[in-house]
Design a protein that fits this description.
alpha+beta; 13% strand; 5 strands; 2 domains; Glutaredoxin; 10 helices
């Protein structure tokens, strides 16, 4: 609308200048020439403004700007399995994908050090939540394999195996992976056939996306409440590069006084 108005105004001034009847007086003629020059200058300025307007992208309105979700302040981990001791005061909740190379690098290179220093010493509870890659059948099947292995108290061994070996598990290939971890293959087949972990994995992924977590690995780091059921979030750590600093963050939290 603004551009159209500028064009119409320019055209109107040009037409007005062209249709003004000439005067027999030399002085009047000079005034008309001066007026015509001023009109031309004005038209040129308006055309330049019009060009700038057309070349500049329109500023987004408030409704067009996508709202980024606020990071969580508290996460409910009541009843979720974890690695560590019940008395631990700190928690890491990892959102991960068993078919993700960066997640595998974290699990094989960084997590063992965190385990020795913080998990095994009773300082940290480590929770694992699924964020499989959308449209990747191997990601989803590996997530289900780990959860079904958990029914035989083998979630963490399967977790470690999947990240270390990075096997292809499509079709019936999962059977060799189950045997490698020492699982009852018949029970595993029954679990996979039932599909009972699919909804839980989907809820985990949906919750992650709702909080703005789309890449893996993503880590929520914070303090646990007295019951060990709620994580009061201190920091969101995104990606493998930032994960290298998690140990320093845990040291800070351990050294800081607990707010009462």
């Amino acid at each position: 609308m603004v551009a159209l108005a500028l064009v119409c105004a320019a055209q109107a001034r040009s037409a007005e200048a062209a249709t003004t009847p000439p005067s027999p007086s030399a002085a009047t003629l000079q005034e008309q020439i001066d007026d015509l020059k001023r009109t031309q200058v004005q038209i040129l300025e308006e055309l330049q403004a019009l060009r700038a307007l057309l070349q500049s992208p329109p500023a987004p309105t408030r409704s067009e700007v996508p709202a980024l979700p606020a990071p969580p302040t508290v996460l409910n981990v009541r009843g979720e399995p974890f690695k560590g001791t019940p008395a631990a005061t700190l928690a890491i909740v990892e959102y991960s994908d068993f078919d993700c190379s960066h997640c595998a690098e974290f699990a094989t290179k960084l997590l063992p050090g965190l385990d020795r220093k913080y998990i095994a010493t009773g300082k940290l509870k480590y929770f694992f939540r699924d964020l499989p890659e959308r449209g990747n059948p191997d990601s989803l099947l590996k997530a289900r394999l780990a959860r079904c292995a958990g029914e035989q108290d083998k979630f963490w061994p399967m977790h470690d195996y999947l990240f270390a070996a990075r096997p292809a598990v499509a079709g019936e290939k999962w059977r060799s992976e189950a045997e490698a971890v020492g699982l009852d293959v018949t029970r595993m087949a029954a679990c996979l056939t039932s599909g009972r972990w699919a909804d839980a994995i989907q809820r985990s992924a949906t919750g992650a996306v709702r909080m703005g977590f789309r890449g893996t690995p993503t880590f929520v780091v914070g303090r646990l409440d007295e019951r060990g059921e709620m994580v009061h979030v201190d920091r969101i750590v995104l990606g493998l590069d930032e994960a290298a600093s998690i140990g320093g963050l845990l040291d800070e939290l351990l050294a800081a006084p607990v707010a009462k």
